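S2.1 Query sequence (BMP family ABC transporter substrate-binding protein)
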Amino acid sequence: MKKGILLALLLVMAFSASAFALAPIKLEDQKPVFIYVGPVADGGYNYMHDLGRQAMEKANPGVKGSIVESVPEGPDAERVMETAIRNGAKVVYANSFGYMDHVINVAKKYPDVYFNHCSGYKVAPNASTYFGRMYQPRYLSGIVAGKATKSNLIGFVAAYPIPEVIRGINAFTLGVRKVNPQAKVKVVWIYTWHDPAKEKEATKALFDAKCDTIAMHADTGGAPQAAEELGMWVVGYNYPMDKYAPTRHLVTPVWNWGKYYDYSTKAIANGTWKSQQVWWSMKDGMVDLSKFGKDVKEDTKKLVAAEKQKILDGKWDVFTGPIKGQDGKVVVPQGKKLSDGEMLSMNWFVEGVEGTIPK
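Output C-alpha cells follow.
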C-alpha cells in the first residue's frame, strides 16, 4: 500500500467542515442536477441512480431534478456542471469516480452550491462524498458463487483497476473461498464502465478459460447476457440481473441510491447538511442482495443469511483477519480489521485471485 495515498486518505477523512455552514435551500428551490457517466437505459449502474433520484423526488414533493447522461470523466464534466448551475441548479450530484477533481474545481467557483460526489475521497466545505459498503453484499454473493461452481473457476469482468473495484473483487473472493477453498477467481480488465460489447467479449474469454460462473463490476447487462447464452452462472451487479440472465442468475449485489439522495435533500432543506464522507452499509440500507435465483439451494441461502446477520449485528466485517494476499502471505493478521482508509486505498489482491493489478 502506498503510504502517500493512505496518508492523503486519512487526512481527507479527518477533514471536518463543522465550522462552515451553507444556507438552507427550500425543497422547491434546490433544482438538483444529476450527472451520469452513462445512459439511464444501461439497465445497471446509471439506471439504479435514476431510480434513486425518482424515489427522492417522490419522498420530497416540490423537488424537481434534471439529469445529464453519458458525461465523460474529463474536463467536459466541469462545463456540464457549470451550465446546470447557471440554469438554476443549487445542488449537484456527480455519480462516477472520475468526476472527483472536476467536482472540487467547480465547487471552489460556486461556494453557495451543494456538491455531492459518488465514490471519491476528496471533499471541500461545500462538497461531500457518498458511497456504500458494497464489499459486504459482494462477500455474500461470493458465497453463492462458490457453492454454485463445478469447475472451481469463476470469472470476474472488471472495469478499472481502482480501489473500489479491487475491494469488490477481494470481498467476493473471500466469500467464494469461505465455502470453496479450491476455487479461484480470474479477473479480466475491460477499462470502461459502459461497453456492452466489451463486457460480452470478456465473458466469452472467461468461458474459454473454463470458468463456469461470472461476477462483474461493469455498468450494463452485457456480461450476464453473454453468460446466459453460454450457460454460465451469473452473479450480477447494480440491478437484479435476472432480466438479462433469466435462467442462469444466482444473485446480485444491489444499490439503493435513494437513501442518500433523500437524506441529502432533507438535510439541505433543514440546514443540517455538512461536508462529510458518507460510506453507508447494509445496515443503513444503502446496499443489499437481490432475491436469489431459483437454482440457489436452501443450505446456501441459510449460510448467506447467517453471515449477513453477523455483519448487520456489527459482530464481524468482511476484511477481518486472518487474510492472505495473492502470494499466500498473511496481509491482515488474526483479529485485526482493516481501517476505512486501508479499504479505500486497497491496491492488492487476496489469495485465490488470478490476475494482476496494472500500475
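The CA atoms of residues 37 and 72 lie 6 Å apart. The longest helix spans residues 163-179.
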